[in-house]
Amino acid sequence: MTRIFSGIQPSGIPTLGNYLGALRNWAKLQDGNECIYCVVDLHAITQFQDPATLTQQSREMAATLLAIGIDPVRHTLFLQSQVRAHAQLAWIFNCVARLGWLNRMTQFKDKAGKDRENASVGLYAYPNLMAADIHAYHATHVPVGDDQRQHLELANDIAQKFNHDFGVEFFPTIQPLIMGPAARVMSLRDGTKKMSKSDPSDQSRINLNDDADTIALKVRRAKTDPEPLPSEAAGLAERPEARNLVGIYAALTDTDHQGVLSEHGGQGFGPFKQALADLLVEKLAPIADETRRLLADPAGVDAILRDGAARAAAVADPIVAEAERLVGFLRA
Ligand code: AQP
Protein backbone atom coordinates (compact mmCIF):
# COMPACT_ATOMS: atom_id res chain seq x y z
CA MET A 1 0.00 0.00 0.00
CA THR A 2 1.21 3.50 -0.80
CA ARG A 3 1.85 5.63 2.27
CA ILE A 4 0.51 9.16 1.88
CA PHE A 5 1.35 12.12 4.12
CA SER A 6 0.01 15.66 4.05
CA GLY A 7 -0.53 18.58 6.43
CA ILE A 8 -2.44 21.82 6.80
CA GLN A 9 -1.70 24.81 9.04
CA PRO A 10 -4.25 25.85 11.65
CA SER A 11 -3.56 29.46 10.70
CA GLY A 12 -7.20 30.38 10.02
CA ILE A 13 -10.42 28.89 8.71
CA PRO A 14 -9.64 26.58 5.76
CA THR A 15 -10.51 28.11 2.42
CA LEU A 16 -11.96 26.88 -0.83
CA GLY A 17 -8.33 26.89 -2.08
CA ASN A 18 -7.23 24.50 0.67
CA TYR A 19 -10.29 22.35 -0.06
CA LEU A 20 -9.97 22.08 -3.84
CA GLY A 21 -6.17 22.07 -3.94
CA ALA A 22 -5.63 19.59 -1.15
CA LEU A 23 -8.31 18.49 1.33
CA ARG A 24 -10.80 17.07 -1.15
CA ASN A 25 -8.04 14.91 -2.56
CA TRP A 26 -7.02 13.82 0.95
CA ALA A 27 -10.48 12.34 1.39
CA LYS A 28 -10.47 10.60 -2.01
CA LEU A 29 -7.02 9.06 -1.46
CA GLN A 30 -8.19 7.13 1.58
CA ASP A 31 -9.40 4.31 -0.67
CA GLY A 32 -6.54 1.92 -1.32
CA ASN A 33 -3.78 3.92 0.43
CA GLU A 34 -2.47 4.34 3.97
CA CYS A 35 -3.02 8.01 4.81
CA ILE A 36 -1.37 10.08 7.54
CA TYR A 37 -2.85 13.57 7.85
CA CYS A 38 -1.55 16.23 10.18
CA VAL A 39 -2.66 19.63 11.49
CA VAL A 40 0.71 21.38 11.36
CA ASP A 41 0.72 23.77 14.31
CA LEU A 42 4.54 23.90 14.42
CA HIS A 43 4.35 25.41 10.93
CA ALA A 44 1.60 27.83 11.96
CA ILE A 45 3.80 29.53 14.59
CA THR A 46 6.38 30.51 11.98
CA GLN A 47 4.14 33.58 11.87
CA PHE A 48 2.83 34.90 15.20
CA GLN A 49 -0.40 33.28 16.39
CA ASP A 50 -2.36 34.37 19.42
CA PRO A 51 -2.09 31.33 21.76
CA ALA A 52 -5.80 30.95 22.58
CA THR A 53 -6.71 31.41 18.90
CA LEU A 54 -4.13 28.80 17.86
CA THR A 55 -5.59 26.25 20.28
CA GLN A 56 -9.10 26.93 19.00
CA GLN A 57 -8.09 26.89 15.32
CA SER A 58 -6.19 23.61 15.73
CA ARG A 59 -9.32 21.95 17.07
CA GLU A 60 -11.49 23.58 14.38
CA MET A 61 -9.14 22.42 11.65
CA ALA A 62 -9.25 18.86 12.97
CA ALA A 63 -13.08 19.03 13.06
CA THR A 64 -13.15 20.29 9.46
CA LEU A 65 -10.96 17.40 8.34
CA LEU A 66 -13.30 14.95 10.04
CA ALA A 67 -16.25 16.74 8.42
CA ILE A 68 -14.84 16.34 4.91
CA GLY A 69 -14.60 12.61 5.54
CA ILE A 70 -11.12 11.89 6.93
CA ASP A 71 -11.50 8.59 8.75
CA PRO A 72 -9.43 8.65 11.96
CA VAL A 73 -9.89 4.93 12.54
CA ARG A 74 -8.73 3.47 9.22
CA HIS A 75 -6.16 6.28 8.79
CA THR A 76 -4.21 8.63 11.08
CA LEU A 77 -5.19 12.20 11.96
CA PHE A 78 -3.13 14.12 14.52
CA LEU A 79 -1.60 17.40 15.68
CA GLN A 80 2.05 17.93 14.70
CA SER A 81 3.22 19.31 18.08
CA GLN A 82 2.01 16.13 19.81
CA VAL A 83 4.59 14.00 17.96
CA ARG A 84 8.16 14.96 18.88
CA ALA A 85 9.71 13.16 15.91
CA HIS A 86 8.87 16.08 13.57
CA ALA A 87 11.00 18.62 15.44
CA GLN A 88 13.79 16.11 16.05
CA LEU A 89 14.19 15.21 12.38
CA ALA A 90 13.74 18.86 11.33
CA TRP A 91 16.87 19.77 13.30
CA ILE A 92 18.91 17.16 11.46
CA PHE A 93 17.50 18.47 8.16
CA ASN A 94 18.39 22.05 9.18
CA CYS A 95 21.96 20.78 9.18
CA VAL A 96 21.62 18.94 5.85
CA ALA A 97 19.83 21.62 3.78
CA ARG A 98 22.01 24.37 2.28
CA LEU A 99 21.34 28.09 2.68
CA GLY A 100 21.46 28.49 -1.10
CA TRP A 101 18.59 26.05 -1.51
CA LEU A 102 16.38 27.87 0.97
CA ASN A 103 17.22 31.24 -0.57
CA ARG A 104 15.37 30.12 -3.69
CA MET A 105 12.06 29.36 -1.94
CA THR A 106 9.38 31.65 -3.31
CA GLN A 107 6.93 31.09 -0.43
CA PHE A 108 9.42 32.62 2.02
CA LYS A 109 9.81 35.63 -0.28
CA ASP A 110 6.03 36.01 -0.59
CA LYS A 111 5.36 35.66 3.15
CA ALA A 112 8.33 37.67 4.41
CA GLY A 113 7.56 40.43 1.90
CA LYS A 114 9.63 43.57 2.09
CA ASP A 115 10.35 43.15 5.81
CA ARG A 116 12.61 40.13 5.36
CA GLU A 117 14.96 41.02 8.24
CA ASN A 118 12.02 40.83 10.61
CA ALA A 119 10.76 37.40 9.49
CA SER A 120 11.22 34.51 11.94
CA VAL A 121 14.03 31.99 11.44
CA GLY A 122 11.26 29.38 11.58
CA LEU A 123 9.58 30.87 8.51
CA TYR A 124 12.87 30.60 6.64
CA ALA A 125 13.43 26.98 7.75
CA TYR A 126 9.76 26.03 7.13
CA PRO A 127 10.59 23.76 4.14
CA ASN A 128 13.05 21.74 6.26
CA LEU A 129 10.32 21.01 8.80
CA MET A 130 7.97 20.10 5.96
CA ALA A 131 10.58 17.66 4.63
CA ALA A 132 10.85 16.15 8.12
CA ASP A 133 7.05 15.78 8.36
CA ILE A 134 7.05 13.58 5.27
CA HIS A 135 10.31 11.68 5.70
CA ALA A 136 9.62 10.84 9.36
CA TYR A 137 7.01 8.41 8.01
CA HIS A 138 8.90 7.23 4.90
CA ALA A 139 5.85 8.51 3.01
CA THR A 140 6.19 8.43 -0.78
CA HIS A 141 3.19 10.46 -2.03
CA VAL A 142 2.10 13.90 -0.89
CA PRO A 143 -1.19 15.47 -2.03
CA VAL A 144 -0.72 19.27 -2.09
CA GLY A 145 -1.78 22.33 -4.03
CA ASP A 146 0.47 23.56 -6.81
CA ASP A 147 1.95 26.24 -4.49
CA GLN A 148 3.83 23.53 -2.56
CA ARG A 149 5.60 21.96 -5.55
CA GLN A 150 8.89 23.76 -4.87
CA HIS A 151 8.95 22.65 -1.22
CA LEU A 152 8.54 19.02 -2.25
CA GLU A 153 11.46 19.30 -4.66
CA LEU A 154 13.53 20.61 -1.75
CA ALA A 155 12.38 17.68 0.42
CA ASN A 156 13.79 15.35 -2.24
CA ASP A 157 17.07 17.29 -2.37
CA ILE A 158 17.39 16.96 1.41
CA ALA A 159 16.69 13.21 1.32
CA GLN A 160 19.22 12.72 -1.46
CA LYS A 161 21.94 14.67 0.36
CA PHE A 162 21.25 12.81 3.63
CA ASN A 163 21.48 9.46 1.83
CA HIS A 164 24.68 10.55 0.06
CA ASP A 165 26.35 12.05 3.14
CA PHE A 166 25.75 8.95 5.24
CA GLY A 167 26.17 6.39 2.44
CA VAL A 168 22.69 4.90 2.76
CA GLU A 169 19.42 4.54 0.84
CA PHE A 170 17.33 5.51 3.83
CA PHE A 171 14.89 8.22 2.77
CA PRO A 172 12.80 7.42 -0.34
CA THR A 173 12.00 9.81 -3.18
CA ILE A 174 8.61 11.46 -2.74
CA GLN A 175 6.11 12.37 -5.41
CA PRO A 176 3.74 15.31 -5.28
CA LEU A 177 0.11 14.51 -6.08
CA ILE A 178 -1.20 17.72 -7.65
CA MET A 179 -4.70 16.99 -8.80
CA GLY A 180 -7.55 18.62 -10.69
CA PRO A 181 -8.37 21.87 -12.51
CA ALA A 182 -8.20 23.95 -9.30
CA ALA A 183 -4.76 22.92 -8.02
CA ARG A 184 -4.16 26.65 -7.47
CA VAL A 185 -7.27 28.64 -6.58
CA MET A 186 -6.69 32.37 -6.84
CA SER A 187 -7.92 35.28 -4.73
CA LEU A 188 -11.43 36.55 -5.60
CA ARG A 189 -10.01 40.10 -5.56
CA ASP A 190 -6.86 39.49 -7.62
CA GLY A 191 -6.58 36.63 -10.09
CA THR A 192 -2.78 36.68 -9.94
CA LYS A 193 -2.55 36.04 -6.18
CA LYS A 194 -3.39 32.70 -4.55
CA MET A 195 -6.40 32.41 -2.26
CA SER A 196 -5.05 32.26 1.30
CA LYS A 197 -6.62 31.76 4.72
CA SER A 198 -4.36 34.45 6.20
CA ASP A 199 -5.07 37.11 3.53
CA PRO A 200 -6.14 40.26 5.41
CA SER A 201 -9.17 40.62 3.12
CA ASP A 202 -12.01 38.23 3.96
CA GLN A 203 -13.54 39.13 0.58
CA SER A 204 -10.57 37.51 -1.17
CA ARG A 205 -11.61 33.99 -0.17
CA ILE A 206 -14.46 31.58 0.50
CA ASN A 207 -14.08 30.09 3.98
CA LEU A 208 -15.37 26.56 4.50
CA ASN A 209 -17.63 27.88 7.29
CA ASP A 210 -19.16 30.78 5.30
CA ASP A 211 -22.95 30.72 5.22
CA ALA A 212 -25.00 30.77 2.02
CA ASP A 213 -25.53 34.57 1.99
CA THR A 214 -21.84 35.28 2.55
CA ILE A 215 -20.83 32.90 -0.24
CA ALA A 216 -23.32 34.48 -2.65
CA LEU A 217 -22.13 37.99 -1.78
CA LYS A 218 -18.43 37.14 -2.13
CA VAL A 219 -18.98 35.48 -5.52
CA ARG A 220 -21.12 38.41 -6.73
CA ARG A 221 -18.36 40.84 -5.72
CA ALA A 222 -15.54 38.70 -7.17
CA LYS A 223 -13.41 40.69 -9.59
CA THR A 224 -14.11 39.92 -13.26
CA ASP A 225 -13.69 41.60 -16.64
CA PRO A 226 -16.47 43.03 -18.85
CA GLU A 227 -16.33 40.32 -21.57
CA PRO A 228 -18.69 37.33 -21.60
CA LEU A 229 -17.18 33.88 -21.00
CA PRO A 230 -15.33 32.48 -24.05
CA SER A 231 -16.53 29.26 -25.63
CA GLU A 232 -13.00 27.76 -25.85
CA ALA A 233 -10.57 27.20 -22.95
CA ALA A 234 -7.82 29.01 -24.89
CA GLY A 235 -9.86 32.22 -24.50
CA LEU A 236 -9.14 32.19 -20.74
CA ALA A 237 -5.39 32.54 -21.20
CA GLU A 238 -5.12 36.29 -20.56
CA ARG A 239 -8.11 36.48 -18.20
CA PRO A 240 -6.92 35.31 -14.74
CA GLU A 241 -10.13 36.16 -12.87
CA ALA A 242 -12.41 34.44 -15.41
CA ARG A 243 -10.06 31.47 -15.52
CA ASN A 244 -10.16 31.20 -11.73
CA LEU A 245 -13.98 31.14 -11.51
CA VAL A 246 -14.25 28.64 -14.36
CA GLY A 247 -11.58 26.48 -12.67
CA ILE A 248 -13.50 26.48 -9.40
CA TYR A 249 -16.72 25.53 -11.21
CA ALA A 250 -14.88 22.77 -13.09
CA ALA A 251 -13.41 21.31 -9.90
CA LEU A 252 -16.77 21.31 -8.13
CA THR A 253 -18.47 19.51 -11.04
CA ASP A 254 -15.56 17.13 -11.72
CA THR A 255 -14.95 18.38 -15.24
CA ASP A 256 -12.32 20.63 -16.88
CA HIS A 257 -12.31 24.23 -18.17
CA GLN A 258 -13.64 23.17 -21.56
CA GLY A 259 -16.44 21.16 -19.95
CA VAL A 260 -17.65 24.28 -18.14
CA LEU A 261 -17.34 26.51 -21.21
CA SER A 262 -19.30 24.06 -23.37
CA GLU A 263 -22.20 24.75 -21.03
CA HIS A 264 -21.62 28.39 -20.01
CA GLY A 265 -19.52 29.87 -22.88
CA GLY A 266 -21.00 33.12 -24.21
CA GLN A 267 -22.75 33.77 -20.89
CA GLY A 268 -22.20 37.04 -18.99
CA PHE A 269 -20.77 36.90 -15.47
CA GLY A 270 -24.15 37.68 -13.84
CA PRO A 271 -25.80 34.30 -14.53
CA PHE A 272 -22.51 32.39 -14.29
CA LYS A 273 -21.75 33.80 -10.84
CA GLN A 274 -25.25 32.88 -9.70
CA ALA A 275 -24.75 29.29 -10.89
CA LEU A 276 -21.34 29.17 -9.19
CA ALA A 277 -22.68 30.51 -5.89
CA ASP A 278 -25.49 27.92 -5.90
CA LEU A 279 -22.99 25.16 -6.55
CA LEU A 280 -20.66 26.34 -3.77
CA VAL A 281 -23.50 26.48 -1.26
CA GLU A 282 -24.65 22.99 -2.26
CA LYS A 283 -21.14 21.53 -1.80
CA LEU A 284 -19.91 23.47 1.24
CA ALA A 285 -22.98 23.75 3.49
CA PRO A 286 -22.88 20.07 4.58
CA ILE A 287 -19.20 20.47 5.56
CA ALA A 288 -19.94 23.55 7.69
CA ASP A 289 -22.91 21.81 9.36
CA GLU A 290 -20.90 18.70 10.21
CA THR A 291 -17.95 20.79 11.52
CA ARG A 292 -20.32 22.63 13.86
CA ARG A 293 -21.80 19.35 15.07
CA LEU A 294 -18.34 17.94 15.87
CA LEU A 295 -17.22 21.11 17.64
CA ALA A 296 -20.15 20.82 20.03
CA ASP A 297 -18.04 18.07 21.68
CA PRO A 298 -14.50 19.55 21.85
CA ALA A 299 -13.26 16.80 24.20
CA GLY A 300 -14.30 14.24 21.58
CA VAL A 301 -12.19 15.96 18.90
CA ASP A 302 -9.22 16.22 21.31
CA ALA A 303 -9.46 12.49 22.10
CA ILE A 304 -9.35 11.62 18.38
CA LEU A 305 -6.20 13.75 18.02
CA ARG A 306 -4.54 12.13 21.06
CA ASP A 307 -5.19 8.68 19.69
CA GLY A 308 -3.88 9.76 16.27
CA ALA A 309 -0.69 11.16 17.84
CA ALA A 310 0.05 7.86 19.59
CA ARG A 311 -0.37 5.96 16.34
CA ALA A 312 1.70 8.49 14.36
CA ALA A 313 4.52 8.33 16.93
CA ALA A 314 4.55 4.53 16.70
CA VAL A 315 5.45 4.90 12.98
CA ALA A 316 7.75 7.94 13.14
CA ASP A 317 9.77 7.28 16.30
CA PRO A 318 11.68 4.22 15.01
CA ILE A 319 12.40 5.93 11.67
CA VAL A 320 13.76 9.06 13.34
CA ALA A 321 15.72 6.94 15.85
CA GLU A 322 17.39 5.20 12.91
CA ALA A 323 18.19 8.56 11.26
CA GLU A 324 19.80 9.66 14.54
CA ARG A 325 21.85 6.45 14.66
CA LEU A 326 23.01 7.02 11.07
CA VAL A 327 24.11 10.56 11.98
CA GLY A 328 26.19 9.06 14.79
CA PHE A 329 24.34 10.15 17.91
CA LEU A 330 25.44 7.95 20.80
CA ARG A 331 22.64 5.68 21.97
CA ALA A 332 23.06 3.46 25.05
N1 AQP B 1 -5.10 28.83 -3.19
C1 AQP B 1 -4.83 27.54 -3.12
N2 AQP B 1 -5.14 26.74 -4.15
C2 AQP B 1 -4.87 25.40 -4.09
N3 AQP B 1 -4.31 24.81 -3.03
C3 AQP B 1 -4.00 25.57 -1.97
N4 AQP B 1 -3.44 25.30 -0.79
C4 AQP B 1 -3.32 26.43 -0.07
N5 AQP B 1 -3.81 27.48 -0.77
C5 AQP B 1 -4.23 26.97 -1.95
C6 AQP B 1 -3.04 23.97 -0.36
O1 AQP B 1 -3.62 23.73 0.92
C7 AQP B 1 -2.78 22.86 1.66
C8 AQP B 1 -2.62 23.36 3.06
O2 AQP B 1 -1.93 24.58 3.05
P1 AQP B 1 -1.26 25.15 4.36
O3 AQP B 1 -2.28 25.55 5.31
O4 AQP B 1 -0.29 24.17 4.89
O5 AQP B 1 -0.39 26.35 3.85
P2 AQP B 1 -0.55 27.38 2.71
O6 AQP B 1 -0.24 26.75 1.39
O7 AQP B 1 0.32 28.52 3.11
O8 AQP B 1 -2.10 27.74 2.74
P3 AQP B 1 -2.78 29.15 2.98
O9 AQP B 1 -4.25 28.92 2.93
O10 AQP B 1 -2.21 30.18 2.07
O11 AQP B 1 -2.39 29.42 4.48
P4 AQP B 1 -1.66 30.66 5.11
O12 AQP B 1 -2.48 31.83 4.71
O13 AQP B 1 -1.65 30.40 6.57
O14 AQP B 1 -0.29 30.68 4.53
C9 AQP B 1 -1.46 22.75 0.91
O15 AQP B 1 -1.40 21.50 0.26
C10 AQP B 1 -1.55 23.85 -0.12
O16 AQP B 1 -0.88 23.50 -1.31
| Major β-sheet profile | 3 strands, parallel
CATH-level-2 architecture of the largest domain: 3-Layer(aba) Sandwich
Helix content: 40-55%
**Rg (CA only):** 21 Å
What is the N-to-C succession of helices and strands? EHEHHEHHHHEHEHHHHH
Average pLDDT taken over every residue:
96
Counted beta strands: 5
Q: Specify the overall morphology.
A: globular
- Ligand catalogue: adenosine-5'-tetraphosphate
Total count of helical runs of at least 4 residues: 13
Q: Order of strands across the widest beta sheet?
A: 1-2-3
Uncertain runs with pLDDT below 50, 5 residues or more?
none
Name the CATH superfamily classification of the largest domain: HUPs
Under the CATH scheme, which class of the largest domain? Alpha Beta
Oligomeric category: single chain
Count up the domains: 2
Which fold does the CATH topology of the largest domain refer to?
Answer: Rossmann fold
Between the first and last Cα atoms, what is the distance in angstroms? Answer: 34 Å
Topology at a glance:
Layout: E1 2-8, H1 16-28, E2 33-39, H2 41-44, H3 51-67, E3 76-79, H4 85-96, H5 99-103, H6 106-112, H7 121-135, E4 141-143, H8 149-166, E5 175-177, H9 212-221, H10 240-252, H11 257-264, H12 269-295, H13 298-327
Parallel strand pairs: 1-2, 2-3, 4-5
Helix pairs in contact: 3-12, 4-7, 4-13, 7-8, 9-12, 10-11, 10-12
